[in-house]
Write a structure and sequence with these properties.
It is a single chain. The chain has about 325 residues and is an alpha+beta fold. The protein is about 20% helix and about 25% strand. Among the domains are: about 70 residues, RNA-binding S4 domain (Structural Genomics Hypothetical 15.5 Kd Protein In mrcA-pckA Intergenic Region, Chain A); about 120 residues, Pseudouridine synthase (2-Layer Sandwich). The strands form three sheets. Strands 5, 6, 7, 8, 9, 10, 13, 14, 15 and 16 form a ten-stranded mixed β-sheet that branches. β1 and β2 form a beta hairpin.
C-alpha cells in the first residue's frame, strides 16, 4: 500500500508481512528494494525513515507475520508514464490489458504510484485483490494477464510451469536477422559482478536453461522485424538472447552491447547522444499474442494486441 502524497513530497510505502518470515528488516529491504545496498538501508533505518508497527527498528530485527513495515522516501517526483491502458478482455476471473509503454506493472525502482496496479486499485475497489499472473517490462507494451479471483491463480501458475502458455512478441532490432529463423538455447543468470546490478546475461555455469524461438518477418535496411516466442520465462529473456546474438532491440538502453549506454542514461537522462545510439525512447518490444486455457471453463483462450502506433510508425518510416 502507498500512502498518497502531493508531487514533490515524500512517499510512504507500507507493507504488511502476510506470512511467517525468516528475514530481518535489513534483509527484507535489500531484497524488496534491491536498488539500494545494505549501507544505504542502514542509513535510512538510522534516520527514522523505516518503521515496523510504528516504531523504529534495528536492521537485525526479525520480521513476523502481521508486522507492518513502512518506508518513507525522500521528497521526489515520479517520472511520467503513459496511463492509457486498454481492456482487451474481462470476465469474473480474468482481466487482460493492453499495457502502454512506458508504464511499470508494479512498484519498482523510482515508481510507486505511476504503476498499472496502483492505477487499477485507484479506479476499482476490488482491484486490491487482483494478482499479476505474469509481468512485462515498463518499456514493453502489449498483453498482460491479471487474475481477478485468487482462487484461479494455482491453475494459471501450473500452466506457466507446464509450458502450455504460448506467448508471442514482436521486436524491432538492429541488423539483418540472418539466419531468419533460429532457436536460441543459452542459459541466463543475473550478472552479480557487473556494473549494473539489475542486468542479466548468458552464464553457461550458473545460468538457468532458457529457450527462445525467433523468426524474421521483414527486413528494412539495417533493421529487422522479428517474432519472438519464449519457451521459458527468465527475466529479460528475449532482450538477453537478442543481445547475445548481436541484434540489440531498438530503444533498449540496458541490453545494447555496452553497459556505458545505460549508465550514461541513468546519469544524464534522455539526450541527443542516446537518441542517436538507440533511436527510440522506449524498448521496441511488444507482447502481441497470449494463448492459454481458461482456469474456470477450460476453453482455449487466444488474445492478440496489434503493434502500437509508436512502433508501427517507426517501422513504417524506415526505408
Amino acid at each position: 500500500m502507498i500512502k498518497k502524497s502531493l508531487p514533490g513530497e515524500p512517499v510512504t510505502m507500507v507493507t504488511r508481512i502476510g506470512h511467517k518470515s525468516s528475514e530481518t528488516v535489513l534483509e527484507y529491504l535489500c531484497r524488496r528494494f534491491s536498488y539500494h545496498n545494505e549501507a544505504e538501508w542502514l542509513d535510512r533505518i538510522a534516520s527514522g525513515r523505516v518503521k515496523v508497527n510504528g516504531l523504529q527498528p534495528s536492521g537485525g530485527q526479525p520480521l513476523r507475520a502481521g508486522d507492518e513495515l513502512a518506508y518513507t522516501t525522500e521528497p521526489w517526483d515520479e517520472p511520467e508514464v503513459r496511463k492509457d491502458y486498454r481492456i482487451v478482455y474481462e470476465d469474473d476471473a480474468l482481466l487482460v490489458i493492453s499495457k502502454p509503454a512506458p508504464l511499470p506493472v508494479h512498484a519498482i525502482g523510482v515508481y510507486f504510484q505511476n504503476t498499472l496496479m496502483h492505477i487499477l486499485r485507484a479506479e476499482r475497489l476490488e482491484a486490491e485483490n487482483y494478482e499479476l499472473v505474469h509481468r512485462i517490462d515498463s518499456e514493453t507494451s502489449g498483453l498482460l494477464l491479471i487474475a481477478k479471483d485468487k482462487k484461479v491463480m494455482p491453475h494459471l501458475t501450473q500452466q506457466w510451469a507446464a509450458g502450455t502458455v504460448q506467448k508471442t512478441y514482436l521486436a524491432i532490432v538492429f541488423g539483418k536477422f540472418d539466419p531468419s529463423q533460429r532457436r536460441v538455447e543459452k542459459p541466463i543468470a543475473t550478472i552479480k559482478r557487473g556494473l549494473i546490478r539489475m542486468k542479466a546475461g548468458i552464464d553457461p555455469v550458473k545460468g538457468k536453461p532458457s529457450i527462445t524461438d525467433f523468426k524474421c518477418l521483414e527486413t528494412k535496411g539495417n533493421f529487422s522485424l522479428v517474432e519472438a516466442k519464449p519457451l521459458t520465462g527468465r527475466t529479460h529473456q528475449i532482450r538477453v538472447h537478442l543481445e547475445s546474438e548481436g541484434h540489440f532491440l531498438v530503444g533498449d538502453k540496458l541490453y545494447s552491447g555496452d553497459d556505458q549506454t545505460f549508465l550514461r542514461f541513468i546519469e544524464e537522462g534522455w539526450s541527443d547522444w542516446l537518441a542517436q545510439k538507440v533511436l527510440l525512447k522506449r524498448t521496441a518490444l511488444h507482447a502481441l499474442r497470449l494463448e492459454l486455457d481458461h482456469p474456470v471453463t477450460g476453453s482455449r483462450m487466444v488474445w492478440e494486441d496489434p503493434l502500437p502506433e509508436d512502433l508501427s510508425s517507426f517501422w513504417n518510416g524506415l526505408k
